[in-house]
């Protein structure tokens, strides 16, 4: 086992603190201790970030880019060490941990390069008068990242903020701290000036309540659940601060009558098994045209049943343990509730063994709209398949929940694709595949799924403020 000792990073120091155990969900053993920041640590982090901002915001964009790229090169060199730590703390198979790190690197690289293109514009007006719109770093960012992607989720925030010239206080997940810790270490080893990137852990509610009102903090960036997101966004707005909220989803998937149900079923099983369904854009509600319903159900269930579940360190495992006992409880409750309301269990449905948080890929069909899983985000390996008789019905059902993050559709018809793209109320739609975003494209939600975007040119813009300079020539 190769799990790192963990420290806080504040200014130019690594700090050891008492804290809480980190658990490997594959065997429920303690693998480390996550240090918890004291109030003094938080005050020091604020002071350090103020200093860091002063230096970093005045560093040439090309130099900022070069520093981030040096850190990425170190992360790539250390991929085996980081991937092992992520699998041990979070449960996903090692191959998926490597892919998460490569994705995180891609995001950091793209943001780093885009930081050189944070252009403003010049607006012509009356003769002798010039209006110049500048984009400036927003300032110190308080960022909160979740446990499902221990490295790539904090990488989104670190990339956007650093490439835009901001300093950060990053509170990463206490349950999966090593992904963020090892990434931050690479930045420090790459020569990032002190105070630009500070890493803390602790009691999430205490930390957010203390940091968000601080005048120095100018932006709150959060990825996590809708209730916590609403709480933090309202705290930020009470102090007149903008926030970026990347919250939960309940992604609909429309399978049209002209789609190949076997191809769609195989793709759905693979996508749903990724990170054991603990992904905000995981496909969850399948609305399938009558004509292909039975074949889709069969293909999806067969492929789902064939997924090997086991310890992420075992190369044979295609899906790992759930990350924490809360997810296991929710899966068990949702399956029991759906079945009690008449849903058909096509595969899965029961915890595997009693040591390690393993739950199989589970497909339920004919699930009533009032079932718990149809209303709340499973955030785990449960897929719900229902029959629809028209595309209008499928779109209407897709939009029936308060979520609006990702959506998917399978069709060979350009007309259907256009109708779905126009009508589905989500931030990201993928047609005939399940990749909802890449580094170059904006990712984020509508409705309760949040606001603001990560990735794409929009991602960096969230970390800037616009200033208009109006200049009359003399
Ligand atoms: P939770 O609501 O307890 O916590 C969600 C995240 O917010 C965690 O990372 C937690 O540390 C943090 N958090 C909680 N209270 C906080 C506070 N007051 N201030 C700052 N941070 C706080 O839920 P959970 O059981 O950890 O996760 C399950 C739910 O979270 C899922 O149903 C899913 O909707 C959501 N989630 C979403 C994403 C995403 O990518 N959008 C990622 C992880 C979790």
From TrEMBL:
<protein>
    <submittedName>
        <fullName>NAD-dependent succinate-semialdehyde dehydrogenase</fullName>
        <ecNumber>1.2.1.-</ecNumber>
    </submittedName>
</protein>
<dbReference type="InterPro" id="IPR050740">
    <property type="entry name" value="Aldehyde_DH_Superfamily"/>
</dbReference>
<feature type="domain" description="Aldehyde dehydrogenase">
    <location>
        <begin position="20"/>
        <end position="469"/>
    </location>
</feature>
<keyword id="KW-0560">Oxidoreductase</keyword>
<dbReference type="InterPro" id="IPR016163">
    <property type="entry name" value="Ald_DH_C"/>
</dbReference>
<dbReference type="InterPro" id="IPR016161">
    <property type="entry name" value="Ald_DH/histidinol_DH"/>
</dbReference>
<comment type="similarity">
    <text>Belongs to the aldehyde dehydrogenase family.</text>
</comment>
<dbReference type="GO" id="GO:0016491">
    <property type="term" value="F:oxidoreductase activity"/>
</dbReference>
<dbReference type="InterPro" id="IPR015590">
    <property type="entry name" value="Aldehyde_DH_dom"/>
</dbReference>
<dbReference type="InterPro" id="IPR016162">
    <property type="entry name" value="Ald_DH_N"/>
</dbReference>
<dbReference type="Pfam" id="PF00171">
    <property type="entry name" value="Aldedh"/>
</dbReference>
């Amino acid at each position: 086992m190769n799990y790192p000792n963990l420290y806080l990073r504040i200014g130019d120091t690594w700090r050891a603190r008492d804290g809480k155990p980190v658990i490997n969900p594959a065997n429920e053993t303690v693998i480390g201790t996550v240090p918890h920041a004291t109030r003094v640590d938080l005050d020091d982090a604020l002071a350090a970030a103020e200093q860091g901002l002063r230096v970093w915001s005045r560093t040439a964009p090309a130099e900022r880019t070069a520093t981030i790229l040096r850190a990425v090169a170190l992360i790539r060199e250390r991929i085996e060490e980081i991937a092992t730590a992520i699998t041990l703390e979070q449960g996903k198979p090692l191959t998926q941990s490597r892919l998460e790190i490569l994705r995180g690197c891609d995001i950091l690289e793209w943001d780093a390069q885009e930081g050189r293109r944070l252009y403003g514009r010049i607006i012509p007006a009356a003769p002798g008068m010039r209006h110049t719109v500048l984009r400036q770093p927003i300032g110190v960012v308080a960022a909160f990242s979740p446990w499902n992607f221990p490295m790539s989720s904090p990488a989104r925030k670190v990339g956007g903020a650093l490439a835009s010239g901001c300093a950060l206080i990053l509170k990463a997940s206490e349950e999966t701290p090593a992904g963020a810790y090892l990434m931050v270490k690479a930045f420090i080893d790459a020569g990032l000036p002190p105070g630009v990137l500070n890493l803390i852990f602790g009691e999430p509610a205490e930390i957010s309540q203390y940091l968000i009102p601080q005048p120095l903090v100018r932006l709150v960036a959060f990825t996590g659940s809708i209730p916590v997101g609403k709480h933090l966004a309202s705290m930020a707005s009470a102090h007149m601060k903008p926030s970026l909220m990347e919250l939960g989803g309940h992604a609909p998937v429309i399978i049209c009558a002209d789609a190949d149900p076997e191809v769609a079923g195989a793709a759905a099983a693979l996508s749903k098994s990724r990170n054991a369904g603990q992904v905000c854009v995981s496909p969850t509600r399948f609305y399938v045209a009558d004509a292909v319903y039975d074949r889709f159900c069969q293909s999806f269930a067969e492929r789902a049943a064939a997924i090997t579940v086991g310890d992420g360190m075992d190369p044979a495992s295609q899906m790992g343990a759930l990350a924490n006992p809360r997810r296991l409880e929710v899966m068990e409750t949702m399956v029991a509730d759906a079945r009690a309301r008449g849903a058909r269990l096509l595969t899965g449905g029961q915890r595997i063994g009693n040591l390690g948080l393993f739950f199989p890929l589970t497909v339920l069909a004919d699930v009533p709209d009032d079932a718990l899983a149809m209303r709340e985000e499973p955030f785990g390996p449960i897929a719900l398949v229902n029959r629809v008789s028209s595309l209008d019905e499928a779109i209407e059902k897709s939009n029936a929940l308060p979520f609006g993050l990702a959506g998917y559709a399978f069709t060979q018809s350009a007309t259907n694709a256009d109708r779905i793209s126009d009508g589905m109320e989500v931030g990201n739609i993928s047609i005939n595949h399940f990749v909802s975003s890449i580094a170059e494209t904006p990712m984020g939600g509508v409705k309760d799924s949040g606001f603001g975007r990560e990735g794409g040119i929009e991602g960096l813009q969230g970390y800037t403020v616009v200033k208009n300079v109006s200049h009359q020539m003399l």
